[in-house]
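thoughts on these tokens:
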Amino acid sequence: TNPVDGCTDPDANNYNISAVDDDGSCTYSGCTDTSANNYNSAATDDDDSCTYSPFSSYPELDNTGESHLIIFSHTVTGIEIGDEIGVFDTNGVLELCDPGDAENPCTEVQYGEVLVGYGVWDGVVNNQGTALEISAALSLDLSSFNSWTTCGAITGNPVLIKVYDSESQLILSTTPTILEGGEFGPFLDGYMWTVIEQLTLEE
């Protein structure tokens, strides 16, 4: 009797108990979207189980090369592993404004609440006592040269923090206890960074 070819992995969808030689035909269910929170690199068949960060639905920011570092200390409590922290500017630039765009020239910069960065809380603390770092994108304003203004946080505006509670699936406002900084701005302009030592969640 010739040996049977097939999938020899008991964890696969199409495991063949009679197979002796694995023929590479094994299939696995899971999330196949690389942008999802629970992407499974081993999955071959998408089973509609993908989950996504609520913050990922916000418009993607332009990479201006200008940013402001938000540091969350190990002293922060009340955040569970898997929760997500979003950094906002309540009066940032909402979208790219390019007056030189041939097809759709922008005539007025639009301002409002904009997500400028987010991260997932994993509970891991580094040797410096930092639990999470988020690089917040800053708007770059070249309007004085009749050029574009990119979306992002505006220098001098206050840092706003929101938390996505993965258990309740709600986005919660917070009152941060700030050790250093608290306003957006580039490092070279003396803004350094913002250090947050505690977050009080507002139900």
Remarks:
- The mean pLDDT is 90.
- The CA atoms of residues 152 and 162 lie 16 Å apart.
- The two ends are 68 Å apart (CA to CA).
- The first strand starts at residue 5 and ends at 6.
